[in-house]
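Researcher: I'd like a candidate sequence for this fold, 110 residues long. If you have to choose between options at a position, lean toward the conservative one.
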C-alpha cells in the first residue's frame, strides 16, 4: 500500500484513537508516514510528537499501549482513525480517555 497519499497536504495527519469495544474516543495524536508504517507493522499506536519532534509509541513508558486492529481514513485521505483496544488508561493524567472535561453541554428542556 502506498501511504504517501495521506501526506500530500501536510507531513502530519491527525489521528483519532477509538475504542473498538464501545466506540469511545480515547485520544487525538498526529502521525507522519513513518508513524503510520510502524503502527501497521507493530499493531500498536505510533505517533509523531509535535512538542518533542520525534516518533513515539503510545505506552512505551507507561505500558498503556493501544493495540490497533483497524485503521480508517476519511474521504479526503487527510485524517485517520486508529480503532483498537487500550491496555490501561490512555491519558497521561491517568484517565481512561483524554476527553474527560466537559466544555459545554446544552441544558435540557425539562
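Model: Candidate sequence:
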Amino acid at each position: 500500500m502506498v501511504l504517501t497519499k495521506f501526506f500530500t497536504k501536510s507531513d502530519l495527519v491527525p489521528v483519532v484513537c477509538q475504542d473498538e469495544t464501545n466506540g469511545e474516543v480515547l485520544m487525538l495524536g498526529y502521525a507522519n508516514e513513518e508513524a503510520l508504517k510502524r503502527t501497521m507493522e507493530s499493531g500498536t499506536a505510533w505517533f509523531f510528537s509535535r512538542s518533542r519532534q520525534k516518533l513515539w509509541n503510545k505506552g512505551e513508558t507507561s505500558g498503556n499501549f493501544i493495540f490497533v486492529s483497524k485503521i480508517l481514513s476519511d474521504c479526503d485521505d487527510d485524517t485517520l482513525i486508529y480503532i483498537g483496544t487500550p491496555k490501561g488508561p490512555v491519558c497521561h493524567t491517568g484517565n481512561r480517555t483524554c476527553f474527560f472535561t466537559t466544555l459545554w453541554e446544552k441544558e435540557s428542556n425539562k
